[in-house]
């Protein structure tokens, strides 16, 4: 066995990358070592690993070095924050997995796995959940027609909104809106009764 093969067989093998924070350097060297060990039997996986290593070499702006590496196979805090802001700002537009992966400086395949590890669901399903939450806020704020709310949430039409909403919540937008309004009305009446009762009580009762 030559020196290179022996080094690759060591589970703790590491090639420090000059000029980088220790955590990032270790992660890059690990990715490159994994790529080297599988390049002959799985070129696609090796290429993906090398892309991940390259993504860590890209400038990260003002992101602290100790927050760049992924934690336990998931996304780093700075990536989660960046994704949440991006999704919220683009809730009325199509949001592709490719755009989210690029925003996180990860390959699409690795991003999908890391995203699910962090959020507990796929990027596509998470975006739909965010659209439904936005629809709920809009329904509570006024009497905007559901067809307009659907467009504001990045969905094709009212029928699309109804399908997605029912799949996520188990009920339709119309039924949810009626129920929420009834609950709000009941709370208002209960508060009014409580205030009226308090005013009618004799002063010595306090």
Automatic annotation (TrEMBL):
A Pfam entry, by short name: HTH_18
UniProt keyword list: DNA-binding, Transcription, Transcription regulation
Highest taxon above the source species: Bacteria
Domain HTH araC/xylS-type, first and last residues per copy: 81-179
Molecular function per GO: DNA-binding transcription factor activity; sequence-specific DNA binding
Region (Disordered): 179-206
Protein name: AraC family transcriptional regulator
Natural source organism: Neorhizobium lilium
């Amino acid at each position: 066995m030559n020196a290179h093969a022996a080094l690759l067989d060591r589970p703790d093998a590491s090639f420090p990358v000059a000029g980088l924070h220790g955590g990032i350097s270790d992660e890059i060297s690990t990715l490159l070592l994994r790529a080297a060990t599988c390049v002959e039997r799985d070129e696609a996986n090796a290429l993906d690993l090398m892309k991940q290593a390259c993504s860590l070499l890209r400038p990260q702006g003002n992101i602290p070095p100790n927050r760049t590496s992924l934690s336990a196979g998931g996304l780093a805090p700075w990536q989660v924050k960046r994704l949440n802001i991006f999704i919220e700002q683009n809730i009325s537009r199509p949001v592709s997995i490719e755009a989210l992966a690029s925003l996180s400086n990860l390959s699409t395949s690795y991003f999908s796995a890391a995203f699910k590890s962090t959020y507990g669901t796929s990027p596509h399903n998470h975006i739909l959940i965010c659209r439904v939450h936005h629809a709920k806020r809009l329904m509570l704020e006024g009497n905007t027609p559901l067809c307009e709310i659907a467009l504001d949430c990045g969905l094709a039409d009212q029928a699309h909104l109804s399908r997605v909403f029912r799949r996520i919540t188990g009920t339709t937008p119309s039924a949810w809106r009626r129920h929420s309004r009834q609950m709000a009305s009941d709370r208002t009446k209960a508060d009014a009764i409580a205030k009226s009762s308090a005013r009618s009580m004799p002063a010595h009762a306090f």
